[in-house]
Design a protein that fits this description.
Strand content: 15-25%
Number of strands: 9
Distance between the termini: 23 Å
Helix content: 25-40%
Number of helices: 5
Order of helices and strands: EEEEEHEHHEHHEE
Mean pLDDT: 75
């Protein structure tokens, strides 16, 4: 399937460290601090053309298999969206697979990044005709509720919060924990495109 992309990356260049009630900027992005949550820049991409034909029906995909941290992250993001009078996101197995693979890669190399974001969106576009895509990533360790810490960090970061409340309808979340006990989070947001008249 031919897909054209006009990639735009929203560079915030901020790594946030959380305390109980406040967030402060941490200028060190080279070394991962211990017991400190962090989030990376938020990524966004829009298709440069609306599809010229109605979206085709996708073959049925199995329900995504998710661990408890992924499920809780999903619930927390939807709870936040609903607090802003926005509809909840729907989990999609194809998007979950991409998010999981990226979190597993970050956990293996021990570094948080958006490397390969365009490739992940391209892979998703093989089964979903999309109009807009975005991604949030985070990591943390040493917390009883790593999901809550990650989502709170996204809420307190303007670029990530913008993705959380954006005009998306599908999502996929992947969380991987490495042998040092560090959790890596990836959430991909997708807005489906249906017809030529599908406007922002």
């Amino acid at each position: 399937m031919k897909s054209n992309f006009l990639g735009t990356i929203c560079a915030l260049a901020s790594v946030i460290s959380l305390t109980a009630t406040t967030a402060r900027a941490d200028i060190s992005t080279n070394n991962m601090p211990s017991h400190r949550p962090a989030i990376d820049t938020a990524a966004q991409e829009e298709a440069d053309e609306t599809p010229q034909t109605p979206a085709v029906r996708r073959p049925a995909t199995p329900a995504p298999v998710m661990n408890s941290v992924e499920i809780e992250t999903f619930n927390l993001v939807n709870k936040y969206r609903q607090s802003r009078n926005l509809p909840p996101l729907t989990m999609d197995a194809a998007i979950v697979a991409e998010a999981k693979a990226h979190s597993e890669r970050m956990a293996r190399v021990g570094q948080m990044s958006h490397d390969g974001f365009n490739e992940r969106v391209t892979s998703v576009s093989k089964t979903i005709i999309y109009r807009k895509a975005a991604e949030n990533v985070a990591y943390n360790m040493g917390y009883g509720k790593p999901d809550l810490v990650a989502v709170q960090g996204w809420i307190e970061s303007p670029g990530h919060q913008k993705n959380m409340v954006g005009p998306y309808d599908l999502t996929g979340i992947g969380v991987a924990k490495n042998d040092k006990g560090v959790y890596y989070f990836t959430q991909i947001f997708i807005r489906k495109a249906y017809y030529v008249a599908d406007a922002d």
